Structures are given as C-alpha cells and as structure tokens.
Give the backbone structure.
Amino acid sequence: GSGEDEAELRTLWLLAVERLLASLSLHHCEVFVFWSGVLEKELVGNIQDAMTILPLTVFMMAAYTVINCLSTDWVTAKPLLGAAGLLTVCLAMVSGFGLAMYLGFPWQAINLVAVFLLLGIGLDSVFIILSSWARSAAHSKDVVTRVSVTFAEVAVSLTITSLTNVLGFMVGALMPGFPGVQLFCVYASLGLVFNYLWMLTVFGSFLTWAGHLEQANRHCLLLTPVLPKDRATSFLYLVLMSGGQNYQEAVREQRVKAEKMM
C-alpha cells in the first residue's frame, strides 16, 4: 500500500535527480551519479544492448552446427540433425524458463545471459551424441541397435556433465545475499535439467528418424533414395546425390558371416 507508493516515489525522485545532473554541462568538472538503482539500470542497459546481437549469434551458431554436421557422404551427413539439436536446446530453454516463472521466480534481464550459456552447453551435447552415432556404425547396421549403442556410450558423460553443471548453479541459487545471482542460477539450472531430459528423449527421437533415413539410403536433405558412390551414374550425381551403401547387401553379408562362424 503506502510503503510501495513511497518506494516508487523515491525511485522516481532519484531518477529525476540523476537525469537533471546528467544534463548539466560543466566546463571544469564531470558529474558522476551513484545510487541504489544505478547498478540494476546499467546492467539492464548492457543486457539490452547485447540482445541486439542475439539473432545474429543464434544464426551463426545454427550455421556452424549445420555445417559441422555435413560430410562428403550425402547419406551419413546429418545437417537436419544439427538443426534439430538447436531446436531441442531452444525447447529446453523455453521449458526451463517457463517452469521457473510458474514456480514464482521473477524474471530479470540478466537471465537472458543464460541463453548463450545454454546454447553452448546444449550444442556440445549434440556434437557428443552425433560423434557417438557415427562410431556406432561399426557395431551394427540396425537402427535400434545403433541408437542403444550410442546412448549407452554417451549416457555417462552427459549425465555427469549435466549433474555437475546443475549442482554448480544450485549452489549459486542457495547463496544468500545476492538475489540477482540466485535468480540467474535458478533459471540456468532448470534450463540445464530440461536440456538433459530433452536430449535423451526429443533429440533421441530425431536421431532414430535420421537413422531410418540412413538405413534406407536416403539423401540427408532431399530425403529421396540415392545410390552409393560406387554406383553413381554421373559426376554431378556422385558429387551432389550419392552416398551411403546398399544396406540390404550389408545385412546379407553379416548374415553370411554369422552363419560361417556357426
């Protein structure tokens, strides 16, 4: 009631004094103003200035992710999975921030810094999973087996990394005396929790879908069946379309080898 009104009036009076002093034009001295709201005001201004480059930053990270997932083989390349990984990270941020707001934690401008933090950590998880997926081809050609091998290999590293990051931010969230730091750590830790969950579920679904495309020897962008490189019909087809291998023949060879071993 009256206490809130008085606090608002004090803030307005201080802002007016700051604006008045900032408008002074003195020849022999400079005027600097410091009051309880200067730090928050300058912090919000810096964050807003930084947010002007956020779209460019997201575009550059998306381009880097997609390009990093390309290869000379149009079947085993995974540019769409790079975009799906970025989408998964964005979904984790929306989920984590939304849950924090639902739980009653107020929003502050500094929380936007967590966007850059979560993008870096989330895309790192994407690269780890895709690297393990590429190695899983040596174990089997079956999609279910490859997915199980992939997550069995990355589960420990993803879990430990996510757990240490979340615990670190939770310690910051429990630190008394710094409400801004506490709120930032709460938002960041919840975003990391959802990043871990969605990497295992949502991105795992995307990975399985891409695995079936690879097993069917389909183009990574056009999604149409293509021929292996050794059966390319022209140079342009070899460069722009071909890739993968004939999985039916590969499976048949594995069965023959298994029968011989028996």
Remarks:
- The mean pLDDT is 82.
- Residues 141 and 250 are 8 Å apart (CA to CA).
